[in-house]
Amino acid sequence: MSQILIYGVPRAIFKWNPAALRGWRIGPGSIAVDCERMASDHSYSITLSNNRTEKAAIDYVMAQDPRLWVPTPASRRLVLDELGLSRSFSRAFDLVRVQKPFDVGSGLSVEEIDSVSLIELKTTRKLLPELPRGFFFGATENEFDLARKLGDRYKFCFVCLHPESMGYQLLTLEELEPLIRTKRTQYQINL
Question: Do the Cβ atoms of 170 and 119 come closer than 8 Å?
Fold first, then answer.
């Protein structure tokens, strides 16, 4: 377990367990903090917040455009199969858009599959008066690969939920690339 001493911080700021401090050398006015626990709790709360933000973004764009629908895991696979794409792309899009509103329960016909666009949401609550300028987001290589394969039929949907600049903008990869100021690779590794 990783622990660190924080000096000069009033103990009342943190919840702590005095029994866990046995064996620590603690100076006056300092506390011990379990860093792994704090990081885990913080990561969990960020994930919950991000999930709520994404849900709000989905609700917002679907209220604006009745041609959008949220695919189930099974319908993701079916859409990818019909488009002749690998199922490894099943998490590279959040929404599906068709040319005209339809009853999701009735399914898509082969003709409608030809008009399907896959939409990947990127969401923020930051004030962005010039949406999407100023947007900071993460994207996977899978998303970029799918965007290259589908061209105009894959869109990044930038959603701003700030009350003073609420809106969204759909961009293809070709439209997005000239707007990108910086881009870096980040590896997320599971062991």
Answer: yes
Enumerate residue ranges in the chain where pLDDT < 50. Answer: 1-17, 20-21, 24-26, 30-36, 38
Residue 133's Cβ-count burial label (10 Å; 0-12, 13-18, 19+) is exposed
Residues 6+ apart with CB under 8 A from 15: none
Q: What is the pLDDT of residues 164-180, one digit of tens each?
A: 999 999 999 999 999 99
Beta bridge mates, 154: 118
CA distances to 2, 19, 106 from 157, in Å: 40, 50, 26
- Six token digits for residue 148: 């290259």
Burial 57-66 (b: 16+ CB within 10 A, else e): bbebbeeeee
Give the pairing type, strands 68-69 and 31-34: unpaired
Which two three-digit tokens encode residue 69? Answer: 């629908």
Say which amino acid occupies 64: Q
- pLDDT, tens digit, 9 for 90 and up, residues 92-131: 999 999 887 766 565 665 567 778 999 999 999 999 999 9
- pLDDT, residue 44, reads 53
Residues 6+ apart with CB under 8 A from 51: none
Q: pTM surpassing 0.85?
A: no
